[in-house]
Amino acid sequence: MSVxxxxxxxAAPAWPSKGVRVSDSAGILSGRLLxxxxxxxxxxxxxxxxAVRNLKEQLALYPIAEVDSEEYFDFQFNRPVxxxxxxxxxxxxxxxxxxxxxxxxxxxxxxxxxxDAQLTMSGDNGSNVYLLLGTEPSRGWKTFxxxxxxxxxxxxITGIIFLGAMLADVPHTRPISVFVTSENAAVRKQLxxxxxxxxxxxxxxxxxxxxxxAAGIPxxxxxxxxxxxxxxxxxxxxxxxxxxxxxxxxDVVIPRGELVTESAAWESGINALAGDDEDMAAYIAQLEAAxxxxxxxxxxxxxxxxxxxxxxxxxxxxxDPGRADGKPDEPWRPKx
Length: 336
Prior knowledge:
There is one protein chain. By secondary structure, the protein is of the alpha/beta class. It has one domain (4-258): 3-Layer(aba) Sandwich (Rossmann fold). The protein has helices at 47-59, 69-72, 107-116, 141-154, 185-191, 204-214, 236-250, 259-275, 278-295, 301-315, and strands spanning 4-5, 33-39, 62-66, 81-84, 90-93, 97-101, 120-121, 129-135, 159-168, 178-181, 219-227, 252-253. Strand 4 and strand 5 (90-93) form a beta hairpin. It is globular and about 55 Å long.
């Protein structure tokens, strides 16, 4: 098979005690990077997975490993889908998680495709970028993490960037808020980012992040805030915001393709809906006023961080520290 099965790596411990370490002077961005996104709970508006798909297309990477779908997915929750190949034959596509990377056999071809796409890379980062993309598993998270970590060690990953997106009380008319955090002290010093203070339910990104840090592999998390009142549709504007931040961090210039046009169309479409719904328009105006206050020169970094933590707690149905009674506000919701 051209794609390795991760299930062959059962002997790997759940939390590896050793990993490929990067010196503080070299930094997370100087080695072999893995960019990770999962569809599902961590992927509001398909923003994070959309960013990785865009990067996959531009870097022309190839599958090098994938998990056994039977082990980790509930097919009544994540159902397989059918499609047709070029000859009209019906195919069955199962939910899975795949690692992509450059291969020695296809390196020249990948380089040619990247050049055709006008992808520019500084520091030859393009050949050092690997991707992990798929659906968040339904079960067996500890075993799943063991297998992913075994694959990460096998290809000598030295740094991991996790991408996520959450539903939040933010207006679609303003720039998408993107937050960068790290659990690694050296990374925080290098990139000038903060450590997340969030406590509560987590997705598979957090589980993998803890395992990677325990293995000595530094990590960074990039999260975008997606307007909750348009949660049923993909958000190209949020995908574009994640790509902008990712490009800044990994020092790779990524062509945007149709994302800029799609982002403008997305915003225009929501404006049209709000124009026909006075309650929605009034609610968006409230969000705009709140956002403008946070973005004002008087707003401190601490205030912005508190706003981010508030978004997270609201998303998880927790207590809202912004109210005296600790209960979340009742925002405008789309009509059924």
